[in-house]
């Protein structure tokens, strides 16, 4: 089941939900959940709720209605709530009536907080109820003006930050940058694809059945974006058993590094070595330099003289002198990770392969390899290339997209940006290779991406963190694997239902 859904599907699911429950129930739950989050924001950032200010910026649809209903709840809790109706004549009639009944006031602007950066008195919450699931294009007019200036208030978005495309997360003009986004019912694709605009995610239970969507049907078998949950990640990480030796865990062959770029090869090897307790072979003109850095590597000259391998990593730091070697490895029927120079030197041979292949471009490499730019819809771009090439496409970035040739699309949300450093991609391709040679081959790319982000966070240290090198990231891979395995084990015995995102996109919300 996906973790993040496309808007059209959610709209249909919402309609089924309304039919299954009494009319108005999902929206009241949505509004109640939203109000709880706003109250928490006031307590945490304005020093309390009673008498504090909340401004609702209200559009014409159900998203604005959620804001108005929440405003009514908040008003009854003693909050000073004011609504700014972007189009007073078209505002949701029932929502408006509820807000009026509760004694809510109307305004035509949102004043800046007197102490924008200090919190405390004067700082309130602005609720973005401009548009949600039906949002198209950037913010316009007054809404654009309100949300384009830093007001100093906390911004809570209803369902989605307005101006952000619900399916692609793309922003083509003025858009809300939320501190918190309160997702209704299920997460939408933009929650995964644009975490920078969403801020912290909270999920409100609006009545979908907890264990899947069976009774509603609509979301069953749905396509969307999947995140590996903690438990799944832990279960997929390979570990040697009593019967294992260095060969049975998978042997990886690495064609990386060259006299021109020795460093990239060393980093790739460090990623591979830290991700498997089996064996890594270094092959080709760069191999001797790599063994000087990593004595664990087993070196050979070419593909033919290399002992058995179960998978190849090709490309980091490779130069023209490795072209023939790359082609020979690609001609085998073994799984291959093709990265960096391999994508540039031998693209056609990579595209022709029928054996399992993972390509790992960043955006510029994607453009050169695919012959077209990634564009605004990163997930669709990766999925289209995966189908075209019959390969797994791992499109790197803060949100890494992993598109499988069969159509499944996974996302890895880094959670921090410290991995944006030279050489960290080389470490990643080594990690994918090690897993591709192992029993975890089928899920090598998403598992490696998740561990890579975790290792970057560990290397950067406690908040607020500090810059890291790719070598430092590689050095924390064992800790990342250990902590992922440990938290997966802990999750098998959950004791409480959590409200809010758990970091793996599989959070459940609670409705008191
Ligand atoms: N129907 C229900 O029972 C539920 C609805 N929910 C809420 O309803 C929302 C969806 O509501 P709607 O489908 O009514 O639509 P929205 O409220 O998302 O959008 C309303 C209208 O705004 C206009 N619009 C689109 N883009 C715009 C832009 N950039 N600038 C200005 N106006 C724009 C369009 O005419 C659109 O139909 C969800 O996101 C969620 O917040 C939730 O409360 C869950 C339950
Ligand atoms: N802003 C970011 N936040 C988190 N991770 C990032 C960010 N930018 C890049 N990364 C990650 O860092 C790595 C960079 O890879 P790449 O661009 O190939 O670097 P190099 O070629 O120098 O090794 C990838 O794993 C990518 O997902």
Automatic annotation (TrEMBL):
<keyword id="KW-0520">NAD</keyword>
<dbReference type="GO" id="GO:0052856">
    <property type="term" value="F:NAD(P)HX epimerase activity"/>
</dbReference>
<feature type="binding site">
    <location>
        <position position="426"/>
    </location>
    <ligand>
        <name>(6S)-NADPHX</name>
    </ligand>
</feature>
<comment type="similarity">
    <text>In the C-terminal section; belongs to the NnrD/CARKD family.</text>
</comment>
<feature type="domain" description="YjeF N-terminal">
    <location>
        <begin position="10"/>
        <end position="214"/>
    </location>
</feature>
<dbReference type="GO" id="GO:0052855">
    <property type="term" value="F:ADP-dependent NAD(P)H-hydrate dehydratase activity"/>
</dbReference>
<dbReference type="InterPro" id="IPR036652">
    <property type="entry name" value="YjeF_N_dom_sf"/>
</dbReference>
<dbReference type="InterPro" id="IPR000631">
    <property type="entry name" value="CARKD"/>
</dbReference>
<feature type="binding site">
    <location>
        <position position="362"/>
    </location>
    <ligand>
        <name>(6S)-NADPHX</name>
    </ligand>
</feature>
<dbReference type="GO" id="GO:0046496">
    <property type="term" value="P:nicotinamide nucleotide metabolic process"/>
</dbReference>
<comment type="function">
    <text>Bifunctional enzyme that catalyzes the epimerization of the S- and R-forms of NAD(P)HX and the dehydration of the S-form of NAD(P)HX at the expense of ADP, which is converted to AMP. This allows the repair of both epimers of NAD(P)HX, a damaged form of NAD(P)H that is a result of enzymatic or heat-dependent hydration.</text>
</comment>
<feature type="binding site">
    <location>
        <begin position="396"/>
        <end position="400"/>
    </location>
    <ligand>
        <name>AMP</name>
    </ligand>
</feature>
<comment type="function">
    <text>Catalyzes the dehydration of the S-form of NAD(P)HX at the expense of ADP, which is converted to AMP. Together with NAD(P)HX epimerase, which catalyzes the epimerization of the S- and R-forms, the enzyme allows the repair of both epimers of NAD(P)HX, a damaged form of NAD(P)H that is a result of enzymatic or heat-dependent hydration.</text>
</comment>
<feature type="domain" description="YjeF C-terminal">
    <location>
        <begin position="229"/>
        <end position="484"/>
    </location>
</feature>
<keyword id="KW-0511">Multifunctional enzyme</keyword>
<dbReference type="Pfam" id="PF03853">
    <property type="entry name" value="YjeF_N"/>
</dbReference>
<keyword id="KW-0418">Kinase</keyword>
<dbReference type="InterPro" id="IPR004443">
    <property type="entry name" value="YjeF_N_dom"/>
</dbReference>
<feature type="region of interest" description="Disordered">
    <location>
        <begin position="486"/>
        <end position="512"/>
    </location>
</feature>
<dbReference type="GO" id="GO:0110051">
    <property type="term" value="P:metabolite repair"/>
</dbReference>
<dbReference type="GO" id="GO:0005524">
    <property type="term" value="F:ATP binding"/>
</dbReference>
<dbReference type="InterPro" id="IPR017953">
    <property type="entry name" value="Carbohydrate_kinase_pred_CS"/>
</dbReference>
<keyword id="KW-0413">Isomerase</keyword>
<comment type="similarity">
    <text>Belongs to the NnrD/CARKD family.</text>
</comment>
<dbReference type="InterPro" id="IPR029056">
    <property type="entry name" value="Ribokinase-like"/>
</dbReference>
<keyword id="KW-0479">Metal-binding</keyword>
<dbReference type="Pfam" id="PF01256">
    <property type="entry name" value="Carb_kinase"/>
</dbReference>
<keyword id="KW-0808">Transferase</keyword>
<dbReference type="InterPro" id="IPR030677">
    <property type="entry name" value="Nnr"/>
</dbReference>
<comment type="subunit">
    <text>Homotetramer.</text>
</comment>
<feature type="binding site">
    <location>
        <position position="264"/>
    </location>
    <ligand>
        <name>(6S)-NADPHX</name>
    </ligand>
</feature>
<keyword id="KW-0547">Nucleotide-binding</keyword>
<dbReference type="GO" id="GO:0046872">
    <property type="term" value="F:metal ion binding"/>
</dbReference>
<keyword id="KW-0067">ATP-binding</keyword>
<protein>
    <recommendedName>
        <fullName>ADP-dependent (S)-NAD(P)H-hydrate dehydratase</fullName>
        <ecNumber>4.2.1.136</ecNumber>
    </recommendedName>
</protein>
<feature type="binding site">
    <location>
        <position position="425"/>
    </location>
    <ligand>
        <name>AMP</name>
    </ligand>
</feature>
<dbReference type="GO" id="GO:0016301">
    <property type="term" value="F:kinase activity"/>
</dbReference>
<keyword id="KW-0521">NADP</keyword>
<feature type="binding site">
    <location>
        <position position="317"/>
    </location>
    <ligand>
        <name>(6S)-NADPHX</name>
    </ligand>
</feature>
<keyword id="KW-0456">Lyase</keyword>
<keyword id="KW-0630">Potassium</keyword>
């Amino acid at each position: 089941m996906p973790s993040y859904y496309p808007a059209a599907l959610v709209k249909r699911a919402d309609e089924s939900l309304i039919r299954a429950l009494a009319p108005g129930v999902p929206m009241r739950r949505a509004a109640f959940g939203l109000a709880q989050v706003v109250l928490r924001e006031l307590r945490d950032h304005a020093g309390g709720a009673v008498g504090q200010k909340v401004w609702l910026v209200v559009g014409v649809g159900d998203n604005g209605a959620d804001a108005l209903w929440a405003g009514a709840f908040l008003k009854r809790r003693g909050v000073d709530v004011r609504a700014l109706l972007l189009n007073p004549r078209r505002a949701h009639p029932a929502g408006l009536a509820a807000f009026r009944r509760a004694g809510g006031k109307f305004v035509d602007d949102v004043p800046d907080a007197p102490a924008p950066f200090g919190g405390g008195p004067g700082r309130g919450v602005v609720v973005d109820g401009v548009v949600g699931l039906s949002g198209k294009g950037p913010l316009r007019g007054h809404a654009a003006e309100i949300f384009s200036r830093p007001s100093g208030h906390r911004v809570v978005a209803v369902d989605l930050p307005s101006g952000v495309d619900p399916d692609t997360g793309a922003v083509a003009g003025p858009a809300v940058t939320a501190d918190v986004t309160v997702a209704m019912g299920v997460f939408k694709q933009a929650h995964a694809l644009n975490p920078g605009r969403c801020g912290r995610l909270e999920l409100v239970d609006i009545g979908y059945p907890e264990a899947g969507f069976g009774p509603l049907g609509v979301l069953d078998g749905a396509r969307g974006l999947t995140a590996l949950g903690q438990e799944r990640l832990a279960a997929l990480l390979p570990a040697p058993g009593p019967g294992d030796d260095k060969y049975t865990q998978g042997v990886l062959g690495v064609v990386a590094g060259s006299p021109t770029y020795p460093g990239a090869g060393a980093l790739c090897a460090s990623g591979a070595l830290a991700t498997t307790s089996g064996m890594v072979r270094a092959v080709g003109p760069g191999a001797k330099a790599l063994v000087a850095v990593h004595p664990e590597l087993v070196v050979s000259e070419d593909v033919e003289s290399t002992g058995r391998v179960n998978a190849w990593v090709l490309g980091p730091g490779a130069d023209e002198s490795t072209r023939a070697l790359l082609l020979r490895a690609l001609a085998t029927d073994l799984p291959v990770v093709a990265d960096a120079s391999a994508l540039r030197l031998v693209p056609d041979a990579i595209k022709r392969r029928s054996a399992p292949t993972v390509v790992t471009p960043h955006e510029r490499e994607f453009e050169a390899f695919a012959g077209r730019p990634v564009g605004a819809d990163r997930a669709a771009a990766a999925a289209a290339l995966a189908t075209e090439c019959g390969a797994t496409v791992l499109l790197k970035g803060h949100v890494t997209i992993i598109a499988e040739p069969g159509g499944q699309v996974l996302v890895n949300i880094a959670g921090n940006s410290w991995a944006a450093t030279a050489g960290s991609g080389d470490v990643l391709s080594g990690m994918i290779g090690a897993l591709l040679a192992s029993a975890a081959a089928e899920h090598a790319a998403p598992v490696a991406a998740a561990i890579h982000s975790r290792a970057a966070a560990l290397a950067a240290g406690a908040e607020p963190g500090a810059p890291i090198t790719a070598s430092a990231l590689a050095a924390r891979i064992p800790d990342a694997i250990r902590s992922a395995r440990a938290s997966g084990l802990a999750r098998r015995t959950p004791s409480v239902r959590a409200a809010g995102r758990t970091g793996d996109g599989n959070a459940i919300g609670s409705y008191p």
